[in-house]
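Support request from a user on the community tier.

User writes: "When I paste my structure tokens into the form, the page sometimes reloads and wipes my input. The last time it worked, I copied everything first. Here is what I submitted, just in case something in the input itself triggers the reload:"
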């Protein structure tokens, strides 16, 4: 369905309609001539609609076909209406029925076009600026695996599997994971995961470049994390290496390891979101899971979360300065929307709230801790002005 700015010939229609309206006004010298024109336009409207409206002539106010089409297009322009602009489809749709005199003021001639348009129901449509969750793009020049070879001589089974992956992603991606695939390189993919609430990564964006090897799915894909040189998670290295059992870069058993028959890229992305970028990443470190629930382990986890949030804020500044290709618009819109919440959380942490639990004074950690450390508050106090400056430099109003 075409948006209003895609309607071809709208300017010509507007010009023709305005000329018609001007001709009517200049030709009316007295009430007798105006009455004649009114009856002629009524006759034309009846001929166009092809319906028997004789019984309601005394109660209805009609436009000429040109003016009526003009009104409908104006309505489409203002409110994004997608219905056909033909007179027959308009007559059948109750939203665009001819306005009756009982609903108008005493003088229908005094009713402006805009006032008539305002009487129509305004359909609620998505913003034109909405960014697609899944999209096929061109130009993979900044992809980490762009120099990988093998995609030129892939087998038919490989192509079929990649197409299946695309279909799954297109249909089942959650709102907080965005994916771009490449028209000229089906072996490459780029994904963005939004940090979940309740974690030290909340509201940040995490980008991953993915490569499908020629023997995929018998071997898992290769994944590179856009780290910006920061180590903010035990599983995500400064070099971009991702440690995950599903990728065979971490120990695992059963459903944790890659299965050529059932594992998918969507499963991989959901695992990164839930198992890596989680509420207590400290325990992701090998062997640390045995300290879960113990006082020392929980205390260390809080300290790790404080450092992870500081690094996450630095990561935001890096992403704002250099967003990955094909995600520039999404980065700007995401942080425009979330910047007030991020800064509000920072102020809450400066006030003592625990990381991931801003404005939740009732939350107490497993070791009984209720607030952030003094050292963290000092570091965040120094970092916060830089984060605000990064938002402002990107054209994002943050109110601070």
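"...and here is what came back when it finally went through:"
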């Amino acid at each position: 369905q075409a948006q209003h700015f895609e309607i071809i010939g709208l300017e010509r229609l507007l010009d023709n309609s305005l000329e018609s309206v001007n001709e009517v006004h200049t030709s009316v010298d007295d009430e007798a001539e105006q009455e004649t024109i009114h009856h002629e336009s009524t006759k034309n409207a009846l001929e166009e609609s092809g319906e028997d409206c004789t019984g309601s002539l005394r109660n209805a106010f009609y436009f000429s076909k040109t003016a009526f089409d003009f009104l409908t297009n104006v309505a489409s322009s203002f409110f994004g209406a997608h219905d056909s602009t033909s007179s027959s489809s308009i007559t059948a749709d109750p939203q665009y029925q001819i306005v009756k005199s009982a609903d108008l003021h005493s003088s229908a001639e005094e009713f402006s076009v805009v006032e008539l348009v305002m009487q129509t129901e305004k359909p609620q449509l998505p913003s034109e600026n909405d960014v697609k969750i899944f999209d096929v793009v061109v130009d993979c020049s900044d992809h980490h695996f762009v120099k990988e070879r093998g995609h030129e001589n892939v087998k038919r089974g490989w192509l079929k599997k990649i197409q299946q992956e695309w279909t799954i992603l297109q249909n089942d991606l959650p709102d907080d994971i965005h994916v771009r695939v490449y028209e000229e390189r089906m072996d490459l993919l780029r994904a963005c995961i939004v940090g979940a609430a309740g974690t030290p990564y909340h509201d940040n964006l995490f980008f991953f470049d993915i490569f499908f090897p020629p023997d995929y799915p018998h071997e898992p894909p290769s994944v590179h994390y856009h780290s910006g040189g920061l180590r903010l998670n035990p599983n995500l290295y400064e070099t971009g290496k991702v440690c995950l059992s599903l990728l065979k870069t971490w120990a695992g058993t059963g459903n944790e390891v890659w299965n050529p028959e059932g594992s998918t890229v969507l499963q991989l992305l959901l695992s990164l979101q839930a198992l890596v970028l989680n509420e207590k990443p400290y325990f992701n470190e090998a062997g640390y899971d045995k300290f879960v629930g113990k006082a020392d382990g929980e205390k260390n986890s809080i300290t790790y979360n404080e450092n992870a949030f500081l690094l996450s804020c630095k990561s935001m500044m890096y992403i704002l300065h250099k967003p990955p290709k094909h995600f520039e618009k999404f980065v700007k819109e995401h942080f425009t929307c979330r910047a007030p919440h991020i800064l509000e959380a920072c102020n809450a942490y400066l006030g003592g709230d625990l990381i991931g639990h801003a404005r939740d004074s009732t939350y107490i950690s497993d070791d009984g801790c209720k607030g952030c450390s003094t050292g963290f508050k000092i570091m965040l106090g120094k970092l916060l002005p830089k984060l605000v400056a990064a938002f402002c430099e990107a054209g994002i109003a943050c109110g601070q």
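Agent notes: The reload is a front-end session timeout and is unrelated to the input. Residues 1-29, 35-39, 41-68, 77-128 have pLDDT under 50 and may be disordered. DSSP finds ten helices and five strands in the chain. Escalated to web team.
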